[in-house]
Amino acid sequence: MDSLDLQVLSQARDWHGQGHKVWLVTVIETWGSAPRPPGALLALRGDGLVVGSVSGGCVEDDLIDRVRHGERVDQASLITYGVSKEEAARFGLPCGGNLRLVQEPLSRTDWIDEILTRTAKHELVSRSLSLETGVVTVQAASRGDKFEFNGTELRALFGPRWRLLIIGAGQLSRVLANMALALDFEVICCDPREEYNLTWDVPGSSFSKGMPDDLVLELQLDPHSAVVAVTHDPKLDDLVLLEALKSPAFYVGALGSRSNTAVRKERLKLFDLSSAEIDRLHGPIGLDLGSKTPAEIAVSIIGEIVAVKNGVALTQKKEGSAMPVSSIHNSNSNSNSGNVCESSRA
What we know:
Elements: H1 3-17, E1 22-31, E2 41-45, E3 50-52, H2 58-68, E4 77-81, H3 85-90, E5 98-105, H4 110-120, E6 125-130, E7 136-140, E8 148-149, E9 153-158, E10 162-167, H5 171-182, E11 185-190, H6 194-197, E12 206-208, H7 212-219, E13 225-229, H8 234-244, E14 251-254, H9 258-268, H10 275-278, H11 294-309
């Protein structure tokens, strides 16, 4: 769930505590091209103030207009926009897209407190809303869960569904960690080297001084996990790769030039890894931006991770780079894969 939606809940709680009437609006279904995914939230105050987003702006304007003209629902109900091409154009829905929303009055905020408290601890939770009764419940969720709506009940996720493990606590890792946090990843950095781990200072991330291979086993990486090894120290990078490449992690990459990557793969063949497992390694890491600075290289890495997560073909790669089959089998020709690269030197 987008961190913006947690901000929406926080603001809605504050408005309610100040005595304002508040409605929550949730995207439940989209057709065609839609700016916000199912589960996206908007909070609407009785005087027309809003926080969050469910579209490109025009739908929000209509919701505000409805409230200001006295249309104030007292129970959860459905709203549909874009039934016709003309209405889709009127509300700014691109490509004739359609949008279904649930609008609900906020009557209590204890469930918001619970969600904010638990997600602050990096827990993944779900909120269920019954449209028939208006009852809200909060439960633990798992990374494989998705937003659901069956016509009478919606279930939305809050907290980090995606996880990034970074091996190495240098400058590049700091920039990469902040970018991943902005994209709502849970971020864990691991570096047993004291000269690096004593200076790690990225709020919102967690840190481990343990050995990388031990941590990978402890975390039990799943298909929502990504691993990047950026220490440039084979003793550390190779340790994590030996375990991560055998895991279900959707992305495993290591910093290094094409020549370094080729040498690394030869080293990995000396251990109990199959050719298919070794071929899962993204190297050189990142997409091709001609990146030079730590910030540019971080953009290249996070861009590739997002592309793989979204099933987009990695067309923007350096010639000769490893291209794991798993990263391109689910490509989407209508998506923008970004244009990023790793420019580390041997």
